Amino acid sequence: MSTRTIAGQKNLQNINQASADGIGGSPLRPDGTLKVKGEFAYSSDMWHEDMLWGMALRSPHPRANILSVDISEALKLPGVYAVLTHQDIPGSKFYGLEIKDQPALAIDKVRYHGEPIALVAADHPETARRAVKKIKVEYEVLTPIVTEEQCLDPETHGYVHEPHEFKSHGYGNICHEQKLVSGLGVTDEVRALADVIVTGEYEVGMQDQAFLGPESGLAVPAEDGGIDLYIATQWLHVDREQMAPVLGLPEEKVRLTLAGVGGAFGGREDISMQIHACLLAQHTGKPVKIVYARDESFFGHVHRHPAKMRYEHGATRDGKLVFADCRIVLDGGAYASASPAVVGNAASLGHGPYVIPNVKMHAIALYSNNPSCGAMRGFGAVQAAFGYESQMDKLAAELGMDPVELRQLNAMAEGDHMPTGQRIDSPAPVAELLQRVKDMPLPPPLDLENLDIRAVPGALSNTSHGEGIVRGVGYSVGIKNVGFSEGFDDYSTARVRLEVIGGEPVAMVHTAMAEVGQGGVTVHAQIARTELGVEQVTIHPANTEVGSAGSTSASRQTYMTGGAVKLAAEAVKLALITKGRRRYGWTQNDIDLVGGKVVSEADGVLVAMVDLLGDEAIDLTREHHHRPTQPFDKETGQGFGHVQYTFCANRAVVDVDVELGLVKVVELTAVQDVGKALNPLSVVGQIQGGCTQALGLAVMEEIIVKDGKVRNASFTDYLIPTILDTPPIPVEILELPDPNAPYGLRGVGEAPTVSATPSIVAAIRQATGIALNRIPVRPEHLTGTL
Amino acid sequence: MRITFTANGKPVEADDVWEGESLLYVLRERVGLPGSKNACEQGECGSCTVYLDGTPVCSCLVAAGQVQDREVRTVEGLAEENGELGLVQQAFVDAGAVQCGFCTPGLLVQTDALLEKDDQPSDNDIREALSGNLCRCTGYEKIMDAVRLASARKCAGKGHGE
Ligand code: FES
Ligand code: FES
User: Fold this and answer.
1) CA distance linking residue A280 with residue B2, whole number of Å
2) From CA A201, how far away is CA A78, in angstroms rounded?
3) In whole angstroms, what is the distance from residue A258 CA to residue A46 CA?
4) Looking at ligand 1, which atom is closest to the CA of residue B49?
5) Using one digit for the tens of pLDDT, what is the confidence trace for A362-383?
6) End-to-end CA distance of chain A
C-alpha cells in the first residue's frame, strides 16, 4: 500500500474556508495556504509505492524514415520493466484535438524534432534514461520541409503527410485555411478610394508557453482493467476522449483526476505524456510516473504559431480607414493540433477592433517539419495584433496624425459590425479604453543624476551607466474572442450540493474545471456563496466523475463553468425554497437565501436553512451552454462565429540603450473592460500576467528552429521575463456588463496578451526611429549588426 | 550510497542514493518533502530554492552527497512551530502573489533570505534579490506587493513602525 497520499486528495482539505466574500469581493485563494506551505500536490509530486518511471525516446531528426528499432539492449538493463513501440499500442494509433493525425508513437517516419518513438518504464529515472539511450533506431534522414515556399510546393519538396491523409480541412501541406471578404473586398477600385495606402510585412517568432510545472502525472492500473490517471491538464474530458481509443478501453474505464497544475497557457490543451504513462502502466501492471525535464517539455508540447503576415491598409486624408487587405501564414508544424481554430481566429480577428468598410483576408496554417504549434494564450489573435497595430502606427505617421487619435477615429463600438458580418451586441469601449490608458500619468523621466544602475537597460550586467539611453512611448489596443467559436457546442457542467454539516449549511461545488492557476476555484466558491447565502463552500476535486467543463482556455472558464455553477446553485436554491413552500405554505414572491437563512423581504426570516434542510441534501447538476455560434463561410468568412469579444488597451514606456541594443520596459499600463470583475484581485493578477507574456514575445522569447531543429530547449537559452525585466504594470478595469453573459462578465485572461506586445514595439520604434517588423525585437535589430 | 542530513530540524537519512541524484530529487522523491519544485533542474528558475546551512541554493544543482551532515531548510520549514503560516508565507497569500504557485516555494525561501539580511529593501533590491526566480503567471507585480507587505509587517513586528 502507499505510504503517502497519492493524487490530489490533500488538495481538497481547507478549501472550505469560511468567508463572507461573494462575487465582486476578493477573497483569498482557497488553495493559497497549501501552496505557500509546499503541501499542494502538483502532478509532478504524485507518488505511489512501487511506482516506475516512464521516459520517451525522441527523434533527433525533423524528418526521417524509420528503418528499424531495436529495443533488445534496452530491455536487458536491470531495473527496466518495459520498452514499447507503436506495435505495442492496443487500440487506435492516432489521436488529435481536431484532426486525428498524430501517432501516439512514431510509425515508420518522424515528422518533427523530438517526436516520441519508444517508451521505457524503469525503477529509477536514471535507469530509464540509460535504457532510452540503448534503443537503437536506424533512420533514413530526409530533407525537412520547413519554409513557406517548400510547404506550398509539395511536388518539389514533398508532403509532411501523404496527400490523402488527414485532408479534411485543407490540401497539400495546407492544414487549414480561411478566407474573408466584406464590403467590396479589396479591388483596384476600392484602393482608388484611399488617399493613403501603407503596406507592411511582419513576422512573429515561435513563442513557448513555458509554464513552470513540467508535464507530469501518475497512471495507476486499476483492478477492473481500467486506469486512473492523475494529471495536469486543461481539459480532463477531451484528454480522455483522445486517450481511451488508443488504450483500447471504453471511456468509463479511463478515469482522470486533476492533479495540481503549474501553469498552462494553452500548452496543456494537447496530449503530452497522458497516453504514454497509461500505456506503460497497462503493460507493466504497475503505477507509472512521468515527469518531463525542461528540454523534454519544450519538445513535448505545442507552441504558439510563428507567423508571416502581409498587411495593406488604405485611409482617407482625414484618417478614416477605407480598406484592409491581409494575408497571414501560420506555421502549424508537423501535426494539426488546434491549427484550424487558430486560423479561424486569425482570420476573423485579424483586422483588429476597427471599423473597416472593405476587407479582404486570407489566413492559412501549414503542415511542416517544424515543431507542432497549437494553443497559446491569445490564440491566433496575438500574431495578427502585431500586424494591424504596427500598421496603425505606420498609417498615423503617414497621415501626420496622433496614433491614439487615429485608432479612436476608427474604433469599433457597440452596434458596429465585425468584418465577419457579426453585429457587436454588447459594449465595445475601444475608444474609451485608449483614452483612459492615454490619460494615465506617465512615469518620471530617467534620473541620470541619481542613477541606480539596476534601473537601466542591461541592469545588473553593469553594461552602461545611462549614456546612450533614449525613451519611447507606444500605444496599442486589441480584440479577442471569448469561448469556443465557429459553431462548436461549447458547454460546461457543474454539480452543486447543499447539506448541513456540523450544524451549518455547506455547499459543495463539483466540476471538471482545470484550475491551472487562474483562480477558478476561488470564483466558484464566490458564486456558490452569493447564490446560496452560505459561508462554507467546499470545492470537490476536478475529475471525470462529473460532466465535462470544457477547456480552461479561450478566457472561457469563468463565463462557462462559472455560469454552470450559477445555474446549478440557482436550481438548488429553487429546490430548497420549493421544499419550504410545501412544508410551510409560503406564498411570498420575494423569497431569498441570505446568511444561512431563508428570508422574505416583507416578512423577514422565514426559517434557518439548517432547519429546512434537516438530514436531506439537495444535489443538482446543470449544464451551461453559451448561445450558438456558426461556422464561418469558407470563402467569405461571414457568420456569427464568436460568442463574446473582449478588448484591452496598453501603453508601454521603454528605455532603449541604442549603443547596446538593449531594451528595458519602464512601465506597461493596461486598461481592460471585464464586464464584471467577479474577483478584482484575480482579475488584476491575470491582466498583469498576460501583459508580461506579451512583453516576453516583444523583446525576448523565441524558440529558435533551424532546418527543423530546436536550438534552445532550455531556460538557459529560451528566455522568459524575470522580475528585473518586468516593469510596474498599472491596471485599470472597466465594468460594462455584457447582457448575454453570466453576471455580465467578460473573459479576462487573454486580451492583454493580445494587445500589449505591439505597444512595446511601438515604444521602441518611437525611441529609435527604426522600423521594426519582426518580434521578438533583438539587440541586433536595434544596433544594425544583424 | 547512504546520506544523512537535517531537514527542517529533523534528522533524515536516505539509502541507495545514486551518486548523480540531486538534493532536489532526494527531498522530493526520497524523504517526502515535495514542496521544493522541479521546473528546470538546471539552476535557471529558482523554483527549487532551499536553505543549505542558512544560505539559499538551487537544490537541483546540489549533489545529494554534498549535504551529508548538513542542514537543509525547505519551504515546508518556513511555517511557525504551531503550524501557522510564517510571515512571508502569509504575505504571499494576502497579496494575491500566488497563482499556479509553482514558483512560490522558491520565492518564499529567497524572500525570507532577503528580509533576513535587510528588512527594508528598496524595490530595486527586491528585484535584484528575486531575479533568479522565474514566475510565469503573475507578472511579478503582486510578488513585489507581497515582499513589501512582508517587509512592512516584519518592521512593525520589530517596532520600526510601518
Ligand atoms: S529547478 Fe532548480 S533552478 Fe529550476
Ligand atoms: S504563480 Fe505560476 S509560476 Fe508563479
Assistant:
1) 30
2) 57
3) 11
4) 2
5) 999 999 999 999 999 999 999 9
6) 61
Among B41, B105, B141, whose Cβ lies nearest the Cβ of A729?
B141
When computed from its CA atoms, the radius of gyration of chain A, rounded to whole angstroms, is: 27
CA distance A454 to A72: 56
Contact (CB<8Å) B104/A36:
yes
CA distance A507 to A489: 29
- What is the ipTM for the molecules in this complex? 0.97
The shortest C-alpha distance from A617 to chain B (Å) reads 33
Residues of chain A with pLDDT below 70 are: 1-20, 164-171, 459-460
Q: Which of residues 19-78 of B touch A (CB under 8 A)?
A: 20-21, 25, 28-29, 32-42, 44-45, 47, 74-76, 78
Residues of chain B contacting residue A681, judged by C-beta atoms under 8 Å apart: 96
Question: Residues of A275-304 as b/e, b for ≥16 C-beta within 10 angstroms?
Answer: bbbbbbbbbbebbbbbbbbbbbbbbbbbbb
A612-624 per-position pLDDT tens digit? 999 999 999 999 9
CB A651 within 8 A of CB A435: no
Cβ of B100 and A211 within 8 Å?
Answer: yes
- CB under 8 Å to A415, separation ≥6 — which residues? A423, A424, A425
The identity of residue A695, as a single letter, is L
Nearest to A463 by CA among A653, A718, A723, A663: A663
Cβ atoms B156, A487 nearer than 8 A: no
Q: In chain A, helix, strand, coil percent, each to 5?
A: 30, 25, 45
Rounded CA-CA distance A325/A328 in Å is 10
Q: Which helix (H) or strand (E) holds A52?
A: strand A52-58
Q: Within the 712-731 window of chain A, which residues sit less than 8 Å (CB to CB) from chain B? A: 714-716, 720-724, 726, 728-729
Percent of chain B at pLDDT > 90 equals: 95
User: Quick check: CB of B38 below 6 Å from ligand 1?
Assistant: yes
* Long-range Cβ contact pairs of A595-602 (< 8 A, separation 24 or more): A595/A533, A596/A504, A596/A505, A596/A533, A596/A534, A596/A535, A597/A533
Cβ atoms A707, A62 nearer than 8 A? yes
By Cβ distance, the residue of B99, B105, B135 closest to A519 is: B99
CB atoms within 10 A of CB A444: 7
The SS3 assignment for B88 reads helix
Atom of ligand 2 nearest to the CA of B98: 1
pLDDT at A20: 52
Is residue A49 less than 8 Å (CB to CB) from chain B? no
Q: Going by C-beta distance under 8 Å and a sequence separation of 6 or more, which residues neighbour residue A89? A: A104, A105, A246, A279
- Binary contact (A723, B126; C-beta < 8 A): yes
**What CA–CA distance (Å, rounded) separates A494 from A2?**
31
| Cβ contacts of A684 on chain B, cutoff 8 Å | 96, 142
> pLDDT tens digits, residue range A123-145?
999 999 999 999 999 999 999 99
Q: Report the C-alpha gap between A168 and A99 in whole angstroms.
A: 8
Contact yes or no for A772/A695 (Cβ under 8 A): no
Which of A4, A36, A291, A682 is the best substitution to test chain B (most B C-beta atoms within 10 A)?
A36
- pLDDT of the residue at A9: 39
Ligand with an atom nearest the CA of residue A264 = 2
Query: Is A688's CB within 8 Å of B45's CB?
Result: no
Q: Is A726 exposed, middle or buried (0-12, 13-18, 19+ CB in 10 A)?
A: buried
> Locate cell 512611448: which residue?
A473
What DSSP designation does B27 have?
Answer: I
pLDDT single digits (tens) A701-742:
999 999 999 999 999 999 999 999 999 999 999 999 999 999
State which of B48, B103, B108 you would mutate to test the pocket of ligand 2, scoring each by most atoms of that ligand within 8 A of its C-beta.
Answer: B103
